[in-house]
TrEMBL record:
Protein name (Swiss-Prot/TrEMBL): Delta-aminolevulinic acid dehydratase
Subunit and partners: Homooctamer; active form. Homohexamer; low activity form.
Residues noted as binding Zn(2+) 2 in the record, renumbered to the chain: 132, 224
Reaction(s) this enzyme catalyzes, per UniProt: 2 5-aminolevulinate = porphobilinogen + 2 H2O + H(+)
Entries under Pfam families matching the protein: ALAD
Keyword set, alphabetical order: Heme biosynthesis, Lyase, Metal-binding, Porphyrin biosynthesis, Zinc
GO terms of molecular function: porphobilinogen synthase activity; zinc ion binding
Lineage: Eukaryota, Metazoa, Ecdysozoa, Arthropoda, Hexapoda
């Protein structure tokens, strides 16, 4: 059923370019992750990620405008809320309520940048009081069924608000099928693509992100739902599961330390666009090494990005995207 559905992979010019695969780095091979808060005028720098900030909708539009002029093709939106008014709860209600920053921003982004491809990260962890990516049982383990129900509801809310892509990063079992089902029942499945964070490892490289998204788990870790770094077999099974459930595109995350997995997934599923997430810790690491003069950032970053393309990634999600867009103009 799902493998016969092609339109959700090709309805946008940028999605179509992503179906055409080579190793050059062009603007459509880059996706720019951005953090969005509810204070519309905010610019909140993130200390562990110099050059990256959380924006409000007005400041985000101002930030993106010159980048779109330079050729920016796609963004990945992350909503960030604080818990000062107790807005976080056990089921992540803040992820899809009317005041969610992502839901508020989508119509304005669609109007301001009609050609920009807009993806939304879908997860509970930025919105749950316990900071885990799913709903928990009373004894504190993941309750998969209510979790994927919530994930699908959130994906639908973002699709309705105008997301071209929903990207579930929660790693619950069978969330792709639940999301696809939900999009079909709302007749949105030919207008919203599903990019699965299929092969996501339990990584120390996410440190700066959890600070940026205020999404660190309040207790425990994510090893019961994110994959063990040493594993190849379960990585293969994760990709297979998501392909069978109808994912339009796949992702490996983090990037640089997992290029063998990129190749493994690409060899297995050459017909699906493959994303790689160069995560927050990779960004900090390269930026800091460049800043202390250990190496020339441009040379090394280019090498890393080309390596990702060579391994089989079609699109690189990178906080360096603004810098690379400048280089593409040189
Ligand atoms: N839903 C969790 C999520 N969504 C995006 C990232 C990481 C992104 C980055 O490090 O840049 C993570 C990782 C995590 O906290 O487990
Ligand atoms: Zn999460
Ligand atoms: Zn996430």
């Amino acid at each position: 059923m799902s493998s016969s559905k092609l339109h959700s992979s090709i309805f946008h010019p940028t999605l179509r370019k992503l179906q055409c695969q080579d190793v050059a780095i062009d603007a459509h091979n880059l996706m720019y992750p951005v953090f969005l808060v509810n204070d519309d005028e905010a610019v909140q720098p993130i200390p562990s990620m110099p050059g990256v900030a959380r924006y409000g909708i007005n400041t985000l539009l101002t930030h993106l405008e010159p980048l779109v002029t330079k050729g920016l093709q796609s963004i990945l939106l992350f909503g960030v809320v604080d818990n000062l008014q107790g807005s976080k709860d056990s089921i992540g209600s803040g992820a899809d309520c009317a005041t969610n920053p992502v839901i508020r921003a989508l119509p304005r982004l669609r109007t301001a940048f009609p050609d920009l491809l807009i993806a939304c990260d879908v997860c509970l962890c930025p919105y749950t009081d316990h900071g885990h990516c799913g709903v928990l049982t009373p004894d504190g383990v993941i309750d998969n069924e209510p979790s994927i129900k919530r994930i699908a509801e959130i994906a639908l809310a973002y699709a309705k608000a105008g997301a071209h892509i929903v990207a579930p990063s929660d790693m619950m079992d069978n969330r792709i099928y639940a999301i696809k089902q939900m999009l079909r029942s709302a007749n949105l499945d030919n207008r919203c693509s599903v990019l699965s964070y299929s092969v996501k490892f339990a990584s120390g490289f996410y440190g700066p992100f959890r600070d940026a998204a205020q999404s660190a788990p309040a207790f425990g870790d994510r090893k019961c739902y994110q994959l063990p770094p040493g594993s190849k077999g379960i990585a293969k099974r994760a990709a297979k599961r998501d392909v069978e459930e109808g994912a339009d595109m796949l992702m490996v995350k983090p990037g640089m330390a997992y290029l063998d997995i990129v190749k493994q997934v690409k060899d297995e599923y050459p017909e699906l666009p493959l994303f790689i997430y160069q995560v927050s810790g990779e960004y900090s690491m390269l930026l800091n090494a460049g800043a202390i003069g250990a190496f020339d950032l441009k040379t090394v970053l280019w090498e890393v990005l080309v390596g990702m393309r060579r391994a089989g990634a079609d699109c690189i999600i990178s906080y360096f995207t603004p810098l690379v867009l400048d280089w593409l103009k040189e």
